[in-house]
Amino acid sequence: MRKDLKAYLAATLLHRAQPLIESFILTLTLSIEEFGQWSWASALYLGVASIAHGGIPAAMLRYSAMHVAEGSPLLGYGLKWMLPWAASGSLILLLLSFSVPSPVRQLVWAHLPALPAFLVAEVVRTYLRGRYENAQLLRWQILSTSFALILLALTSAMWGVCGAAYMRLLQPLWLLLPTFHLLKEAYASSSHQHFPGFLRFGGHSLWGNWALEGIFFLPAWLIGWQSESPLSLAYWRWATLLPLNIRAIFSQIVIYFYPTWVRSALAPHLLYHKQRLLLWGTATAIAIGLLLLSLGWRIFPGEAYLPALPYYWGAIGIGLWWSTEPLLLPNLLSAKGNIKGYSTAYAVGLLTAIPFYVLARENLWLHLVGMGTAGITASLLSNHMMRHLRDTNP
Q1: Three-state secondary-structure class, residue 72
Q2: Residues 317, 369: contact at Cβ < 8 Å?
């Protein structure tokens, strides 16, 4: 288990570091206006990816932990149901591209081939995680991340934002080729077995994940549409790039323990007390490190991004909070089969954030307040549901 944990941590570090390093590279190779345009296109791409997965990755994580012996048939079953979602997501992204200015639209088009490849990769990634096959996941991550970053550095240095677009066009190749053997075996066995409840669990998790991702992607979409200013998007991107990745990192920690929670006989509230101090202590240490990094803000990302610095400080607090209670509590409910509780907590959280987002327009502070309010709501509601489970099943 220790060796597998090391492989998981290394794979997670590479996976989460890749978008950060990509942003560092593009900050150095693009103008602030071009970086804002790229951030706008990327927000649309990642936002659509977050709603076009059909809940398949969440179901795959749970079922691969429950059905370890099934292997390729389970992966094939999940991929079969992911394909129509991937096609629908590509169509949605294409339609959304016509709502943004022409330079951003062309960058969105460059992301179109990447979307289905990203969704297929997420299914494979959660399949490997649920089975604790993290050494294989690490090898895949090393290959895909190394190739992507080298290619991005070369193309963006030579051709600017057009070069970055060329890199994104090639994403299906460098992302999926290392998993060809898994995909081939899954395709060969995809029609041999069915998994009752898989799609129902995925469907319930879908609208919860829609709400969760909406909390984090709606601000970038609204800032772009309401202001049509690449500068505002560039400031928002740099203000939230590192702080909100605290949550992303800790979501990977939760995913690692999720299969163990599924198999554990302990009640959710007991698991909660075992895990919360670990999350709070580690997240606090990372947040302090991020505050110290801001001392070098004038050096990197530089004077041009200085207006984003106060928002960066605020986003650190939001990232710290979202790495703890709002992340842990709903996922414990999900691991114990209460997927409706998971989804309800995030859906109500989004509803409390939307008024702040709509009123904010270019006021980045209100967007941050909306995120924080959503986190407080989701944690309070899921804590209430957990207490109810404890009282009814002592």
Answers
A1: helix
A2: no
DSSP 75-114: HHHHHHHHHHHHHHHHHHHHHHHTTS-HHHHHHHHHHTTH
Quote the CA–CA distance of 6 and 3 in Å, as a whole number. Answer: 5
* C-alpha span between 112 and 88 (Å, rounded): 11
Would you state the structure tokens that stand for residue 140, as one six-digit string? Answer: 């895949």
80-95 tens-digit pLDDT: 999 999 999 999 999 9
Strand intervals (E) in the chain:
none
b/e 347-384 (16+ beta carbons within 10 angstroms → b) = bbbbebbbebbeebeeebebbbbbbbbbbebbbbbbbe
pLDDT in tens, 305-352: 999 999 999 999 999 999 999 999 999 999 888 888 999 999 999 999
Give the C-alpha separation, 247 to 197, whole Å: 29
Neighbouring C-beta atoms of residue 95, cutoff 10 Å: 10
Q: Which of 83, 141, 152, 140 is nearest to 116 (CA)?
A: 83
Are 264 and 332 within 8 A, CB to CB? no
List CB contacts of 118: < 8 A, sequence separation 6 or more. Answer: 49, 171, 175
